[in-house]
Design a protein that fits this description.
Myb_dom, DNA-binding transcription factor activity, RNA polymerase II-specific, 4 domains, RNA polymerase II cis-regulatory region sequence-specific DNA binding, Arc Repressor Mutant, subunit A
Length: 394
Amino acid sequence: MIQTQTHLSQEWIDFLQIITNSNPIDVETVKKFVKVRYNQFPTDQQMKDYYEDVFSKSTNDVNRKKWHQQDKNLLIWCMTKHLMSQNRFELIPNNNDWDYVSKVLCVDKNLVELKWISHLHSNLKISNWSKEEDQILISIANDHYYKNNWTELTIKFNSISQTQRYPKQIRERWNNVLNPNISRSYWKKEEKIQLLQLILNYGKKWSKIQNELNGRSENQIKNQYNGIIRNLKRFNVQEIEEKLLIQAIIQNPDQKLSLTVTQFMSDYLARKEASKNAQSLKYNQQTESLIQKKTCIDPLPQQNNIQLQEKVNQCKETHQQMLETSIQQNSYFSIPQQQQYQTNPIAFNQCFQNNNYSNYYTNFHQQNQQYYNYIHYNQIQSQLPYSSYQFRYY
């Protein structure tokens, strides 16, 4: 036994009993007939909960003009389940189907049909308007246009016409083509300035701008603005600069557009260069301040520098002592030469290469340091202090 809430209709309760054991909806099958924006259709329980908790409580609200996406999902789900219960797998409802679903959802039959049509993959929606359709729309538009209720106007139109249209088509056809209040004359300069001011206020909301710019259709407004922007592109105006340039045009309505653009670009580039220089100066000041902070005297780094300098001086002294010891122990240098090389270690190194190597290796060449004929071992041994000792070879 299905538990129900008191505000639910008997048609809804009977409908739930009919589809209790039905299969889940295949979203790919649905996509063949209507437009859906998801890859997985909501479950039966989700649709049931949404109708009972939300949709059924606001369906009869006279101020509710717009259907939300979940409302549309509910309609598609309900119609698909109804057709599946009759073993009809092509989602092509007839007049009886509209009547049945409207009672289940407690929604006007024409509105149900209209919402379904707006989701169809149908060539009727993009077909050209006929003279008969234009005459029907003209005959009924005066009663509904000023109410701005395009859904109501569309329902009335579809009940008379042999073809079906949806609200967006009706609105665009009336506003852009059939409305007798639309002006076909050239745009005056005052109109262009007013258009630019409205775009600054509302952005590119053409329908809202049309309500304030009397006598011009949405298409006329859009085309006029795009034409102005195309002219600006000739002056290499970037998109980020459009708003600033529009403000400049509005502030100088009596000046020619070309002069306004030229003056604006000159002033804009000058301000841009000044801003760039100011940023560069600020960056340099910040960098200099950062360097000064890093170079401030800190007790710990100063102590480390002193210790490092002491180690360097100690290494220099050790190196000098090693040089002096080497010079004193070298029997090839006279005392004056030793004194000279103590004060000039570089000269000592050069002399060591030129004299010492050449004394031991007669064919020594400093450039490549190759030794072709080495002196016999006995000749070197005779010059050593322990040359009197005899070493045996094992």
